[in-house]
Amino acid sequence: MSTPSEAVERRLYNALWWAKVQSAGPLEVEPDTPAVAGLTRAAEPDGSTVWLVPTMPSGAGHAVLDELGTPPVAVEQPNETARVLAIVVACCWTDRSGSAWPGAIGTLTQVRAVYAGMRGRAEQSSDLTLIIGSLRRLHATHWIRWNEKAGEVRLGPRVINWTPADQATLRDLCRHLPDPPPAILSTTPDTPTSDPLPTSEVGDE
Amino acid sequence: MSESQHALFDPLLQDLSDRARDEVLAAFSAVQYAAHPVAEVQLAGLRDVTLRRQVQKMLKLIGRVLVQVDGTHWTSGYSDDIAAALTAQGWQPLSVVDRAVLVLVLIHSVAIPRSEGILTGDSWKSARPTTVDELRTTKISGEERRLALQRLRAAGLIQLSGDHSGGPSYIPGPQLQRLTPAARRRLQDQLILAAAPASPIAEAIRARNGTATPLDDASSSAEQEEGVA
Amino acid sequence: MDATLLDAEAEAAVLRVYRQVFAVLAREAGAMIVDPELLDADQAILDAFAEAGSDGLTVEQATLACRGYPHDVIVRRFEVLRQYGAITKLVDRPNELRHRAAFAPYVMLMFLKRMSVQGGQGELHQLLTLEAHSVSDPSATEDQGLASIERLTKVFRLLGNELAILVATSTTPQLRENAQLAWGNERLIEQAEKVHRIVLERWPTLHRACTSLRMSLAAYADAVQLAAGRLVERAGTTRALGLLPIETWVTFTRGSEPDVLAAVLDGLLFDAAAPDFSPQTMVEAVETGRRSGTARMAPPRPTADVDAPESAAATDREELRAEAERVLAERPSVDIVEVVDDAGDWVTARRVLAELTAAHLHDELDYELVWSDGMRIDPTAGTPWATEGVFRRASR
Questions:
Q1: Domains, chain B
Q2: What values do phi and psi take at C392, rounded to 5?
Q3: Would you identify the CATH topology of the domain C2-111?
Q4: In this prediction, what percent of chain A has a pLDDT beyond 70?
Q5: With an 8 Å Cβ cutoff, are A89 and C277 in contact?
Q6: Given A15, A70, A201, which is nearest B34 (Cβ)?
Q7: For residue range C154-191, what is the model confidence (pLDDT) as tens digits?
Q8: Confidence band for C117, pLDDT divided at 50, 70 and 90
Q9: N or C: which end of chain B has fewer CB within 10 A?
Q10: Predicted TM-score (pTM) of this structure
Q11: Cβ contact (<8 Å) for A55 and B3?
Q12: Average pLDDT, chain C
């Protein structure tokens, strides 16, 4: 099919992109960027850019670490952060019949309301600090996109790797969380009309 | 989005038995995602040379290599050619402030103890804490420094030292063990070249690396004179 | 005739000072000392003479003044110093018991001690400064210029030889220990070149001696380079760092702009933070969050948690901050007794105190818990015995 030098070149191309993603996290690139084997493409709702997100074959990944008792680098406030991610999923994954990516825009108000509801009490002043801290951490690692100025949040490109089984678990989790109040967006919503799966697994070469 | 197929790794994995595939993927995941190097005895994928070769091949596909630590543990790091190719293009995701703060921790926790002759081994590991006071002596604002420390910790580039006697303090994080021997040496050399560019040690490093040396007037003029004398 | 006599007298003077100076290095006449403690005894004796003033000291007075040392040690050292002429009778007559000390041995001692600490480079710098000064003196003669150049030639030859022999014969650790011979050589060479320049301009006829100096400087520079090269070659991947003096590192960290520091990592790549949150983790976190939601605060954290700072559970910084702020209630500080009383019972109070202690110890939280000596005792309070202290915002 391809000459040996082409194969070598393609291997180098893949390796360089993988190294970029490992050193910087998922990358936002022009849609015409050629496919990279093993990096899933998560298209932005408006189609202007595409995220490259690393995927692993089943049997590889973080799950292995638990069994081995060799932890990954510690996350600050792991539980708070995981809770807030769950709440963002509840707020932004509006059409749960489809994929979680790209989802809809949620607001800080919604997140705060669901948080207090999850805690089963009225909102406390310290909640906001905790929530903002978690949102920032999740944004920095591409689990969500958090627009602090607008107080708006979306799911991040990493969620593209959720399997159908993962999505079933999360659907169930969302049902157990209080329903978020309607989102009142400060910006005119650019209607992320849950595109019919604009994502495609980049694969076969 | 089926996970049973993987465009990058499948060509490697499909020839393995189910058992071997599991071992290879476990070892691959451990060296990639565990914060610290993992013990060779713990994983068949590292113990068994044939399986380890498969792990090595998987890593190569994503620009990485196995790095042995202390002769008994393994982790993964960027392969030297890939790191060189990317950084030559100007690829450096770590911000200037983050890198500066990391370098300060490395100087206080590693370089200075080395000059004091109190560090053994040949790695960037150190238990000597760098205090916030020592980081404060530079041209980086308190807020910038605080955020940088947070990001560096999240990436495992630094970690809190257990010693809180003099306030918070940091030591190099586990990620530094991911540096290949060439990268470790590069870091050493660049630290010396930056801190003491005119020192004989820097001169020796340049000579070894075959990089240009500043003219040494004393020796060159004397050499010319030698014929006369 | 006259000249020979003068020469002989000058030589005798040199010999006299030479003997005095080396008195401090003599165990007994004709033998070097091997025990550094004897140097301290000598210093004590010379110190005593300085204190005694112009009346001088008898042997007995000297041993009394140096009673920190064994009597016979002082008596023996006194005798050695006397034999070398470092200590002489106040007046040269048979029954004179009082003695005086020459200053040269004391100066020698000070030089020895400094050189033992700093390796002699400082002294060499001073010597070079003095040489530059003396050859610049308008009244300096060509002979003095020649003498200067010859002295420096020898100094650098000896220095270069020592280093070259070290490189050729010693192990890497030995070489590393003597690395100070190689430190700061740039400035030494520059200073010597300055003397060389002055002399050559004033007395061009001395070009031959000047050539010798240049060669000895070059030999020294080569020896330094050879030593450095050998050290670097064998230093592994991080050990060469130890070849620079500590001050170099300190100066570099203090004086450098962030981009200069950052450039040290040029060509190196690091992994970005990439934590994993599996759906299962999220489910569990929500479960525990729901359960503890009604509790007023998180469970107490034993202070030992700071020993395992990277453990996930120990780093709930924001929860600690929230608790600290709740206790402070917008005030800059709060009395511990008040905190304890507000808590009601001791079990709750202990939990709150554990949180405040954790906040105090947390590296990224600016709070401190300061205990004082007092104790409040009030049988009617929920916690009758309470140690006094304050919890407050710390200024960092």
A1: 10-84 (1.10.10), 96-178 (1.10.10)
A2: -150, 170
A3: Arc Repressor Mutant, subunit A (1.10.10)
A4: 90
A5: no
A6: A70
A7: 989 988 888 888 888 877 777 777 666 666 677 788 88
A8: low
A9: C
A10: 0.72
A11: yes
A12: 81
